[in-house]
Amino acid sequence: MTLTEDFKQARERYLVSRGKSLTAIRAALIDMDGVLYDSMPLHARAWHQMMEENGVRTSVDEFFLYEGMTGPATIDLIFQRELGRRASDKECKELYARKGEIFRSFGQKPIMPGADIMLSTMQRLGWKRVLVTGSAQMSLLSHIDNDYPGAFSPEDRITALDVRKGKPDPEPYLRGLGKAGCLAEEAVVVENAPLGVRAGVAAGCFTIAVTTGPVTRKEFEKEGAHIIFSSMPEFADFLSSLPQ
Ligand code: CA
Fold first, then answer.
1. Could you tell me if residue 81 is left (phi over 0), alpha (psi between -120 and 50 degrees) or otherwise beta?
2. CA of 112 to the centre of ligand 1 (A)
3. What separation in Å is there between the alpha carbon of 34 and the centre of ligand 1?
4. Contact 28, 129 (CB under 8 A)
């Protein structure tokens, strides 16, 4: 079976499960870290280093599983596990600031291979592109216009600063749908993180998972991803094969 057939069947199953008939895709709600930038290995390293500086034991890889959660929620989760207590607001603020400092010290973040083709193909297909990120890292957000010129107009962006609840809550993607001006059935979500997939599914969107890190397919299946691609170039190639 080809990927095109897989995609078509996955989308039909999704529409049937929502009691809808075939609807055209009008928008793509696109995550940033791990989709547009190959930045997750650097985030994971920064998290691990910050925790190590504070004598808290973690593994580098575990941070790929927390991707999409807000910084304070991640710190609190690890504090409860390793120290047996909640992190205070002050600790969350200071430690998250330090993590950001370490992340920025790594310099420019590599662009994800295939992301530019994905974005230009979506434009050719007539899909409106909306950025939906849990990040509030201005360093990455300010690079978007340079690295992907014209892909996202300033009003078509949802960041951590625009939501009350971050992923895995559906709020960021529901707000993204508002920006796109379309129904959940008319949009696709593009995610690389299990918690991001959970948010996309909870928002009612056809959710595409792209595995760009060490997280296994099983984790994405558990969260209800409607289709899984094994890399961004594979997803971009697939999009390029779609008829206009
Ligand atoms: Ca991500």
1. alpha
2. 12
3. 5
4. yes
- Report how far residue 27's alpha carbon sits from residue 183's, in angstroms, rounded to the nearest whole number: 9
Residue with tokens 């508002």: 178
10 Å Cβ neighbour count for 105?
Answer: 10
Answer yes or no: are the C-beta atoms of 140 and 32 closer than 8 Å. yes
Residue with tokens 């409860």: 80
Contacts of 230 (CB under 8 A, 6+ apart): 210, 211
Residue 149 CB neighbours (<10 A) = 9
Q: How far, in Å, from the CA of 120 to the mean position of ligand 1?
A: 20
**Residue type (1 letter), 111:** I
Span from the CA of 191 to the centroid of ligand 1 (angstroms): 6
For residue range 173-188, what is the model confidence (pLDDT) as tens digits?
999 999 999 999 999 9
pTM comes to 0.90
Whether the Cβ atoms of residue 187 and residue 25 lie closer than 8 Å to each other: yes
Under 8 Å between Cβ of 235 and 229 = yes
Q: How confident is the model at residue 140 (pLDDT cuts 50, 70, 90)?
A: low
C-alpha gyration radius of the chain: 18
